[in-house]
TrEMBL record:
Residues annotated as transmembrane: 21-48, 68-87, 99-118, 162-189, 212-231, 349-366, 372-391, 403-422, 442-462, 483-502
Lineage: superkingdom: Eukaryota
Organism per entry: Populus tomentosa
Localization per record: Membrane
Name of the protein in its database record: Major facilitator superfamily (MFS) profile domain-containing protein
Length: 539
């Protein structure tokens, strides 16, 4: 019956209009901020070690102790996981729009606060940083289910995948912006405050002004989020939430008449008939949900979990991989600010050459070849390139082969983004009922962040040298970079297998996918057959 609602049909068949692009920018700037805030920490962790954990007479610059490094890198992910579950649930209870503003304000306040500290003592600075980055992550977590759900409920049927993927693709620009801004700041400080390399003068290699560098880089993350707050508050609630969850047909018709600039009928009787139908009243923890969507939720959670183990362990610790192959010089040959510059330059190059293009390839092709094909292809090539890096790892460490290593490493990022990193975000926003859509997306995203935590914490220890004498200060011996890459290759292979649980939503309306257009208690929703018709090409 839901497919007969005029207001929802009008959204499904609407031509691409200005309001679509407005929604992409408003939601996308949240993701731009999310990526900037989450990944900029990897640019400054080496600097934090030099400033706060310097040891007089040590051969190498100071570095964060293992427990502190794990906390600084991973605490935002713990917050993100909590935020995805909480705000995902709240988005279905209170409405997408009301909760959307809360998450943004939390991100702005905590971005600024994470650059502040109560004293110059290392313990106080790290404690303050971790506290505010947890709550920053909590706000970022809410952005995942809300942005995806809002965009899916605003989009038309034909280009919905591209619109949701475009919101997520702003993450690539956020990573890129973080690297570029770190290059600019470190260059400016390097030019103004010249310092010798660590091996020349250990104490003078870290100028006092370096303490401002990491703070500025972290705090600037508040700007893009603050700039979009007004526009988020101006967006009307989505028609699908207003009609199908809040049961206010009149308000849904009024809001969408203004957005689409057409006259729409309220259809209060149809909405009442639909929402009171027992087949569309089941909750998350019911047999009916398990029957209709249990395997789909298992598919979206497992694929996102496996993807993020590989994706975040690579992304957060790429500076260590670059150092291992000699692309970034040894720490003692640089001063503190120069090290930030070189790490940022490497991350920016990877983002520019592989991360950003990968996202936009997904945007271009997701509604042509479908979500399933892109996700399967992405996991397959990530597996291939990870093994290609790992098996002949000693070959890649030779000076003449470093560029080849970087190319292969970039390709794994390209196929992560032209693959499961984008599709795992898109699909959960399309296949679940409106009253559970934000919650299920939040659960799927939280599963992903659990994978990110495994990658972020686990890789710190796993990638350590097998020889205890060659490990970083305070770390036990690990399995080495080569074996870590082999483990990640196996993780990606399991991603291929679990992708077969995820249905294809290309070309179908949200109500077709969720089964909300079914009014007969015994009927099986269209989503059940979708596994057998993976791709639905659009003319």
């Amino acid at each position: 019956m839901a497919k007969e609602l005029q207001v929802l049909n009008a959204l499904d068949v609407a031509k691409t209009q200005w309001y679509h692009f407005t929604a992409i920018i408003i939601a996308g700037m949240g993701f731009f901020t999310d990526a900037y805030d989450l990944f900029c920490i990897s640019l400054v962790t080496k600097l934090l070690g030099r400033i706060y954990y310097h040891v007089d007479g040590a051969a190498k610059p100071g570095s964060l102790p293992p427990n502190v490094a794990a906390a600084v890198n991973g605490v935002a992910f713990c917050g993100t996981l909590s935020g995805q579950l909480f705000f995902g649930w709240l988005g279905d209870k209170m409405g997408r729009k009301k909760v959307y503003g809360m998450t943004l304000m939390l991100m702005v306040i905590c971005s600024v606060a994470s650059g502040l500290s109560f004293s110059h003592d290392a313990k106080a600075v790290m404690s303050t940083l971790c506290f505010f980055r947890f709550w920053l992550g909590f706000g970022i977590g809410g952005d995942y289910p809300l942005s995806a759900t809002i965009m899916s409920e605003y989009a038309n049927k034909k280009t919905r995948g591209a619109f949701i993927a475009a919101v997520f693709a702003m993450q690539g620009f956020g990573i890129l912006a973080g690297g570029i801004f770190a290059i600019i700041i470190s260059s400016a400080f390097k030019a103004r405050f010249d310092a010798p390399a660590y091996q020349v003068d250990a104490l003078a290699s870290t100028v006092p002004q370096a303490d401002y560098v990491w703070r500025i880089i972290l705090m600037v993350g508040a700007l893009p989020a603050a700039l979009t707050y007004y526009w988020r508050m101006k967006m009307p609630e989505t028609a699908r939430y207003t009609a199908l969850v809040a049961k206010n047909a009149k308000q849904a018709a009024t809001d969408m008449s203004r957005v689409l600039q057409v006259d729409l009928e309220a259809e209060e009787q149809k909405v009442e008939q639909l929402t009171e139908d027992k087949s569309n009243q089941f909750g998350l923890f019911t047999k009916k949900f398990l029957h209709r969507h249990g395997l789909h939720l298992l598919g979206t959670t497992t694929t996102w979990f496996l993807l993020d183990i590989a994706f975040y362990s690579q992304n957060l610790f790429q500076k260590d991989i670059f150092s291992a192959i000699g692309w970034i010089p040894k720490a003692q040959t640089m001063n503190a600010i120069d090290e930030v510059y070189r790490i940022a330059r490497a991350q920016t190059l990877i983002a520019l050459c592989s991360t950003v293009p990968g996202y936009w390839f997904t945007v271009a092709f997701i509604d042509r070849i479908g979500r399933f094909a892109i996700q399967l292809m992405g996991f397959f090539f990530m597996t291939v390139f990870m093994f290609a890096l790992a098996i002949p790892y000693n070959h890649w460490t030779h000076k003449d082969n470093r560029i080849g290593f970087v190319v292969m490493y970039s390709l794994t990022f390209f196929f992560a983004n032209f693959g499961p990193n984008a599709t795992t975000f898109v699909v959960p926003a399309e296949i679940f009922p409106a009253r559970l859509r934000s919650t299920c997306h939040g659960i799927s995203a939280a599963s992903g962040k659990l994978g990110a935590i495994v990658g972020a914490f686990g890789f710190l220890y796993l990638s350590q040298n097998q020889d205890k004498a060659k490990t970083d200060a305070g770390y036990p011996a690990g399995i080495g970079v080569k074996n870590s890459l082999l483990v990640l290759g196996v993780v990606n292979f399991f991603g291929i297998l679990f992708t077969f649980l995820v249905p294809e939503s290309n070309g179908k309306s949200l109500e077709e996918m969720s089964g909300e257009n079914e009014t007969d208690e015994g009927s099986v929703p269209n989503v059940e057959q979708s596994s057998y018709n993976r791709t639905v090409p659009l003319v």
